[in-house]
Amino acid sequence: MFLIEELIPKDKFDVGTLAKLKAVDPTQTNLQPILSELFEWIQDINWPIAKELCIILASFKPEDIIPYIQMVLKSGDEGWQYSCIRYLIPKLPSEVRGIIALDLRRVIDNPTYNETWCEIDIAAREIYETYFEKLE
Fold first, then answer.
1. Which residues form the domain of 47?
2. Which of 55, 66, 74, 127 is 20 to 30 A from 106, comparing alpha carbons?
3. How far apart are CA 66 and CA 64, in angstroms?
4. Is residue 83 a part of any domain in this protein?
5. For the domain that residue 100 is a member of, what is the CATH number?
6. How many structural domains comprise the chain?
7. Where does residue 119 fall: left (phi above 0), alpha (psi -120 to 50 degrees), or beta otherwise?
């Protein structure tokens, strides 16, 4: 078994820590204390561990990760929003995606200037249309 601190990547190349994190059953382990730090590692999807970490995060308990996804979608950090929309949300179980549908709709229907400029609203629309109903 690992100490919870050992499950936080040390740098953007820390695939060894991702292997440890994959070995933990997120339904049986309280990972809540490190979720904030884990979510920070998906702020830039170009970091070597970011895409794999999105897949891992998608397996966590919905009640743990939904607040973080909602926080990212409201963060104003367009890179982080993009990572979450393109690489985390599609990996979520359908029932979890359904819970954050309204958050995606906010980005689609009322994007900030920067969300429009960075085309975050377009990414959100594409994900919404893929996993939910077609928008009119």
1. 11-133
2. 55
3. 6
4. yes
5. 1.25.40.750
6. 1
7. left
